[in-house]
Amino acid sequence: MTRSPSYRPGYTLLEMVVVLAVVLLIGSIILPTLTGMTGNTKVKGAADAVKARLLEARLNAMDQGRPYVFSVSEDGTKMRVAPDETVEGELSADGQPLPAPVIDEDMPSEIAVKANITDGVMIGDTADGYQILAIFQPDGTCAQDSPDILVQENGVTGVVVNVRGLTGAVSLNKPTTANGGMP
Q1: What secondary structure letter does DSSP report for 142?
Q2: Alpha-carbon distance 175 to 183, whole Å?
């Protein structure tokens, strides 16, 4: 009687090593792509918040008929939308100024807002240490000619928020220099 050899189904060690190598190769290709997609979502979210506050300042100026200011703290970690203090607003029946809404907002941790200062001159400072970056007029225009605002996290390329002076339109752009700074 001859016995037929019995085969057990399974994988050899060589097949297992080849499959593991293919999985590692595919993983090493995909991982940097996934990291790149989510790398600066915090910066993009902060830039969207800055854009929203700029548009809110423009809308308030148009609705209330007086200039509104967008400003940031000296360290760039807080932003503010408030009426322009140099222009008097509406008065109540007894001659007192009507309070206008002031919006203060903190930037996410490790995010800072910086202004593009091409001529070395800031627009101005407020009494409590905020730097004025844009002043919106009641007609919706911006008093400054296209101010650029850089929103950046340490070590991550930032996003530039640009305000068009003539129309007051706000847009998001990538920085144009290699180090992620202002153009």
Answers
A1: B
A2: 7
